Amino acid sequence: MSVHKPQKPAVADYPTSTAHQAELEAARAFFLKELESPEEEWEDQGEREDVHLWSKKDPEVHAVPTVKGETLVKNANSEAFLGGVVQLPGMRKLWDQRFESGHMLARYDRTSFAFYTVMKGMGWLVYPRDIVGIQKNYHPEDGSEKGERMIVQTTIEEKEWAPEQKGKTRATLTVSGWRFTPVGDDLKVTYIVKIALNGSMPIAMVSMVATETPLCTGRARDVYYQYGHAPYIRLPSGSSSTSIIFQTEYFSDPPANPETDEHVREYRCVLTTGSQVGDEFELVYDAKRMYDGGVSVRVEGEGVECEDDGKGVVRVKTTKSGEDATVVITPK
Q1: Does CATH number 3.55.40.20 belong to domain 21-227?
Q2: Which fold does the domain 232-331 belong to in CATH?
Q3: pTM for the model
C-alpha cells in the first residue's frame, strides 16, 4: 500500500485536538528537559560554521547520540523563521541535505498536523529512512511576531495512512525540536534531535548523521541570509482565531545552484472558507530578498479576495463560506 497523500488534509472536525496528544506532550516535555539540562550533561563538540554543537551518547553503543545545535540569526523574527524558512518542505531542501520529501497526512488545526517524511539513503549501503510523525508549533499567547516560538515533532503510528514502504527503513523520532528565541533584533535558534535510525548502518555514517544534523541550524540561517523567507500565514493583529480551514501550503523547491538556475518561487496557500464570511488573514512575503521585484497574486477557486499592499503583506478576505480556494504568490 502507498502512503496517503490528501489534497485537503484538514480533518472533518477541524479545528480539533489530535488523537496523538499523549505522544506530543511527551515529546514536548522531553524537549524542554533537554533545553534546560545542565552543560555538564552534554559533550561539547565546539563550533563549526558558527554553530555551537553538543551531543549526548546513547546507552546503545551504535545508536545516534542526542544532538544539539545553536546559532544566532541576525535581523530575524521568530514568526518568519519558523513559517518561512524551517517549516516548508520546499525551503527545507536547501538547509537539510538529508531531506528528500514530506507532506501532511492530516491537519488538526492551524498549528498541528500529522506528516510523512523521507530522508535520503547513503548510496547502496544504507536504505532511505522514512518517518511518520506529529508536529505542533507553539506560538506566544499575544501572537507577537517577535515572541519565542517552538516546533516539536515526534513519531506516531498510523498504519492505515502510512504503512511501511518497500526499500525504506522506518526511523523512530523521539523528538525533533526547534526553539526560536528573540535576542534584541536577532534570533537565537536551538535545534535538538533524538532519533533511532533502525536497521543496519556503518558506524562512520552514524557519526556523520550526528555531525550533520545539528548543523542544520547554521544552514537554515544561511538560507535566510541568501533568500530571505518564503511567504507565511499570519492572522491580523488582535485576532486569535478564524473559521477559515487552512488545508496546507506549498513552496516550489529552490534551485540547487542559485547563480545559474532560475527559480519561480511559487507559494500556494490551500484553504477552505469557513462559516464566518468576512474572515481575514495575511500572507507575509519577503519584499527585500525573496520577492525584491514585487509579487503577482492570483486566486484559484472561489470564496476569497486578495489585496497586496506592495510592502510585504497580501491581505486575504473570505467572500463566501464553504468554498475551496488556493492563493498563489509568484514573483513579478
Answers
A1: no
A2: Jelly Rolls (2.60.120)
A3: 0.94
For CA atoms 180, 182, 185, 189, the dihedral sign is negative
DSSP 14-77: -S---TTHHHHHHHHHHHHHHHHS-GGGSEEEEEETTEEEEEE--SSTTSPPEEEEEEEETT--
> Can you give the pLDDT at residue 205?
74
Q: Which three cell numbers stand for residue 148?
A: 519565542
Cα 193 to Cα 177: distance, rounded to the nearest angstrom:
6
Q: How many residues does the chain have?
A: 332
Q: What does the pLDDT look like over 126-181, one tens digit per residue?
A: 889 999 999 999 998 877 778 899 999 999 999 999 999 999 999 999 999 999 99
> pLDDT tens, 95-131?
999 999 999 999 999 999 999 999 998 766 788 999 9
* Cα(184)–Cα(181) distance, integer angstroms: 10
Q: How far is CA 52 from the centre of its chain?
A: 22
**CA 208 to each of CA 219, 262, 306: distance values in angstroms, whole numbers, following the listed order:** 16, 31, 46
Closest to 2 (Cα-Cα) out of 162, 169, 168, 170:
162
| Mean pLDDT calculated for residue range 259-286 | 89
